[in-house]
Amino acid sequence: FYKMGKSTNQVTASYWADRPSASTSCVISFFLAFILFTSLQSFKDVIVECKSCILVAGLLCSLVFFFTLLGIGNLKDMFFRNSQVKWVEVFLALAVAEVCAVLIHGICTTVCF
User: Fold this and answer.
1) How does DSSP classify residue 104?
2) N or C of the chain: less Cβ packing under 10 Å?
3) Ramachandran region, residue 80 (left: φ > 0; alpha: ψ -120 to 50; beta: rest)
């Protein structure tokens, strides 16, 4: 996968040449976060009946956090090149995931956090 450049410190990876663009990754990650959020809310009554389902729902809410943070990072990368995700974006993604979790059950919030 790796090709050596002219100097020994320069390594170019042909693997990263085929990665999706930031806009494509942004759309996919926000779409997955939205699908998880809506499916968890639509199956809320079924999830609350089973204790192990509440724990799994908390883990799925942490995936909502992951995909939301990934989407925010890619959205920021589309407008500002070589930018990093700061704490504000992390807390925004965490707030979205925690709202998703608290609408299901209180234990989901603890598992997600």
Assistant:
1) T
2) N
3) beta
For residues 33 and 77, the answer to whether their CB atoms sit within 8 Å is no
Distance CA 58, CA 93 (A): 15
H or E segment to which residue 98 belongs:
helix 87-102
pLDDT of residue 69: 94
Nearest-Å Rg of the Cα atoms of the chain is 18
CB 85 within 8 A of CB 76: yes
CA atoms within 13 A on the CB side of 97: 29
- How far is residue 27's CA from residue 30's CA, in Å, rounded to a whole number? 5
By the 8 A CB rule, do 63 and 112 touch?
no
Residues 13, 16, 18, 23, Cα dihedral to 10°: -160
Judged against a pLDDT cut of 60, whether residue 15 lies above it is answered with no
